[in-house]
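Kindly review both lines to help learners:
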Amino acid sequence: MMEILLLLEQELTFSSFDRELAWQIGSELANQAINEHLPIVIDITIVNQQVFHYSAPAALPGSDRWVTRKHNTVMFFSHSSAWVLEKINGDQQVLSSKYGLDLKEHVAASGGFPILVKGVGLIGSLCVSGLSGNQDQDLIVAVLRKHLR
């Protein structure tokens, strides 16, 4: 599974990424949340600056905290939070015991995806929180695939 997630990251690498593209992607996700009544929070951060944030009316207050924790995990590992979840076999304590990460600031859960640019590498993250299982990541993958076609 980790190999599949790595291939997905390679597939969803941009030739360039800027605030305008962040707005387009974030807005598309927000519109989907509105139209489908999804209780999600969306966060796009590039170069340590939040450039897009949306909290749907039905989103739980804790979802904002989850996107921050997913972002921190993506930035530490330079991989999706789903990849990290697989790497630690679902044992959140490994983040603390092996990597020295504060579990209040990091989480391995699907829905945090690296924004990668060819020739540059990791520049930020796109995080979604509020749905169950892999649904957060599935939303991200669908919209990124659309923009990279």
